[in-house]
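Quick illustration for those who missed Monday's session on complexes.
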Amino acid sequence: MKGIFITFEGIDGCGKSTQCELLKDYLKDNGKDFIFVREPGGTAIGERIREILLDKKNSRMTARTELLLFEAARAQITDEVIKPALEEGKIVICDRFFDSSSAYQGMARGMGMDFVAGLNMAATGGLKPDVTFFFDISAEEALARRGKRGEASDRIELAGLKFQEDVRKGYLELASNSDGRIVTIDATLGIDEIFNVVIESLKGKI
Ligand code: TYD
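Prediction with thymidine-5'-diphosphate bound:
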């Protein structure tokens, strides 16, 4: 692939959306050829799967169904959007990718990280991000931030504090086994400080 694939990860309320916005502005200001997408979603089919996944009414959804729906949305965005853009040499930024399934479904929902890794592989055909930023924060602090913003919780966020703690554990495990792909950033630092780390890590790559 000619382009570069960058993903953003972290528990709910970690501040990654703010950092995505800053990176988008930076790339725009520097005249870079990039696209920005999010998971689940990013395609017409994926956005419909997203609605099912996040709908609070779907309280009967089993962990396996949830995992397979995330993977289905991922397969679609990978083939329809991400791979073609990378072939064209673009920078692709994705707000969440397969590490989310490993941390949320593999660790927190207890499906098993290895089991999920196999499905991630199936959904992406082996495509991996070049760089992944993991914004690390405790579940308590993230919850406090979300509370301040007064956002309505979706079905996944409703899973609670212990669930978010387990998601974090999953990310930390992924980061320690990633051979440098995952850059862990202390998400309690200031917004500008965090963004400096992001840009420093991308020097020479974008
Ligand atoms: P979203 O509103 O996009 O959350 P955020 O702004 O935090 O990214 O909702 C996505 C939710 O889905 C979020 O709680 C994380 C969860 N998720 C998984 O559980 N598994 C996955 O594979 C993905 C991509 C997301």
